[in-house]
Amino acid sequence: MSKPKKKPLAGLSDAPRRPATLAPAAPCPCGRPETYRDCCATFHEGRATAPTAERLMRSRYSAFAVGDAAYLRRTWHPTTRPATLDLEPAQRWTGLDILGTTSGTAFHTEGTVEFRAHYSLHGVAGSQYEHSRFVREGGEWVYLDALPDA
Length: 150
Description:
- By secondary structure, the protein is α+β, with helices and mostly antiparallel strands.
- The chain has one domain: Nuclear Transport Factor 2, Chain: A (Roll), CATH 3.10.450.
- 17% of the residues lie in helices and 31% in strands.
- The protein contains 3 helices and 4 strands, in the order H-H-H-E-E-E-E.
- It has helices spanning 40-44, 53-66, 69-74; strands at residues 91-103, 110-121, 124-137, 140-146.
- It is globular.
């Protein structure tokens, strides 16, 4: 019996999308208490790299929220990175719940983050669940892939 196909990542389409402008003093989309400027923008702009797998996950969620496909590709492991990544312009990411983590700290070379990302598409609410694997590549955390559903 073959396994059912995994649902593609919500938010991908052939329509190009430019990064959205988010006021630096706005709350960070990732849900941490800092402003966007002091949180995920530091990673998106290349001023710092995520110190943990969870922070990378949060910054990648924020990249979806602001439409930063370049950051998403830059933080995707080269063996699993898609050739192109175009984001759905009508999709609005509305919240992130971190459900659990394993390893993924400064003392590890791999880790996982289980999360649920909430969105609205054409006025219809939805969510994306994933248990993601992250590894260090060249000393920096990168997204590797999604673990299969148990």
